Amino acid sequence: MSASILKRLPLDMFWPTFDPFLFCAFHNDKYPKANADMGPAESLVGRALGQDFAGMDGWRMYHGKKVPGFPAHPHRGFETITIVNEGLVDHADSMGASGRYGEGDTQWMTAGEGVQHSEMFPLLNENDANPLELFQIWLNLPSKNKMVPPHFTMLWNEDTPVVKALDSNGNEVAIKVVAGSLNDIAPAPCPPNSWAADDKNHVAIWLIDLPENAEWTLPAAVSNLSRTLYFFEGDSVELDGVEGSVNEAFVLKSDAAVVIKNIGKVARFLMLQGRPIAEHVEKHGPFVMNTKAELQQAFNDYQRTQFGGWPWPRHDQVHDKSKGRFAKYADEQAK
């Protein structure tokens, strides 16, 4: 194994992550044609509705019963970063904010002291398939920021930089920069209390696309960062001459450059990088705190306050099917 590769791990739906990251899920669902209610125009018989993760016929309802997705649920103590490569997500939350995003957009939400939100996957095309591909990444908050006010930011696809580079054979490599600068190209701003908001933490979230036979060098960062490269689409690659297969994660030495050579069909990667927060973590379900007492307090507070309650008519809130991509922030106009 190359000195730049510290570990190799297999991938399934839920990917291995390392401090400051807590969790990464890859949703890749080939939804069929839609019905009039923005759900799948297929029988749901045989699915464990409310807990459908089996992947029958290549798609899942998750916790949804009519529309796939995740009805209202709470969070405290960390951030969710939802990158939608294909398809749409309908957002609603206990702050009264809402939105529809996808097709390359990212939503970055700081749960902080507590928020409820729903994440539903409206199917709008009644004449053809409705594929969905997204990552949801959980980024921890340091203890000093775990109880900040909740906040969400939209990083629209049009405002998210893509760095393009030609290799020695003229192949064009594209790197989408969600967080962390690359070649002096800065990303759109993340929420102000995020671990990623301080450049000293070297948080980077990049989507890397290599065409067939292309080669690109992942630049070295500083030492002692968590740095993981997830190979989620393609066939085979070489990392510093070591062959790897699709559906593998490579834990990398952060202060070493790594030559990535695609030796198969189009290859796609997600890279997560950041300085560890290095604080004790206590987590259970939707809450991530530093002590068991704080975790118990989170459950008590949610039972008592519902984190502001749920102002929407449905827990699986979806927006009007005629709406395009939009975001309406709490107490603000649609943007």
UniProtKB/TrEMBL annotation:
InterPro entries named in the record: Pirin, Pirin_C_dom, Pirin_N_dom, RmlC-like_jellyroll, RmlC_Cupin_sf
Domain Pirin C-terminal: 208-308
Lineage: Bacteria, Pseudomonadati, Pseudomonadota, Gammaproteobacteria, Oceanospirillales
Compositional bias of kind Basic and acidic residues: 313-335
UniProt xrefs under CDD domains: cupin_pirin_C, cupin_pirin_N
Domain Pirin N-terminal: 60-139
Location of the region described as Disordered in the Swiss-Prot/TrEMBL record: 310-335
Protein name per Swiss-Prot or TrEMBL: Pirin family protein
Family of this protein: Belongs to the pirin family.
A Pfam family per the record: Pirin_C
Domain of life, source organism: Bacteria
Species: Marinomonas maritima
